[in-house]
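User: Show me a protein chain along with its predicted structure.
Assistant: Here is one chain, sequence first, then structure tokens.
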Amino acid sequence: MPLLSRLLALALLVNGSVAVAAGEYRDNPAAQQLVDELVAENVGSRETLTALIAGAERKPRILEAMAKPAEKKLTWAEYRPRFLDQKRIDAGLAFWEQHEAALRRAESSYGVPPEIILAIIGVETWYGRNKGSWRILDALATLAFDYPRRAEFFRSELKHFIRLGEHAHIRIEEATGSYAGAMGYPQFMPSSYRHYAIDFDGDGVTDLLNNPVDAIGSVANYFRVHGWRSGAPVAARARVTGDAYDGVTNQGLDAKFTVAQIRDAGLTVMSCIDERVIPIDYCADPQDREAATAWRQEGPRGAEFWVGFRNFYVITRYNRSDKYALAVFHLSRELRRARQLASRGYVQ
């Protein structure tokens, strides 16, 4: 008997019937079609899969959260402090020290520096402290069957999640995560879990929910697959040098311009040669033909202009938000700076 079927059979014996807990989706046509597809793909028996889906509970609060995502309304000045407080930086340094060997190995294998991996995990779950408390089965079923705008996406994610019970030894009836169905230290969606997660510690199980070493390697692998360039810049502040910058700022996440085009439109990347740039970490010296995108953000002192390069775009593949990518970039710089100061004996 496949692992998924064994786990669900055990749950049925313990609980009497999975369907007793909920049942909203037992007779849902879309849910029944999903069961038909999984049966045809030999994922499990019809009885087992029907019981599983019937055990999912509809969560109105998830639908409310999806309808009114709070972060979209925030300015950069409001968004940034959520992820760059001293407590998060200190926790990141402790996590770095604890998992230094794994972070070094991830950089050696995939070319992604430790501070970027740490910043992703730090922004997503505060280094594993807050992985989400929603039952993933409930979240994905709610969004697959009661959120028409993105039902196809979440329906696919639900199928991937059910398959994870077989491939990642996840207890799919118990696993918890975000209200959108993301899970573990790095908050991978089920499809990303199946495609990019790796067994980085070699224990035979790819576990992002409880194993920080697997999470470190999996984030690095995700970035490598999506085109991370080792040693290349991520983003830099820009200063206004012309009056046509509106034509190149906030034009989407794709790096559709070149550095030269952005400069010609009135934004010049702050060079690392320029000693007036403070902090120096927010500078770069890219080639004119380097692909880039430009952003105007409302910072604490007014408008800020940023230019993002290929690696900035890669961060947005993790979360399609310019503010998210900037937060990851800023946190990574702060972690690197704090690490360097600590190595020299300075205490913040």
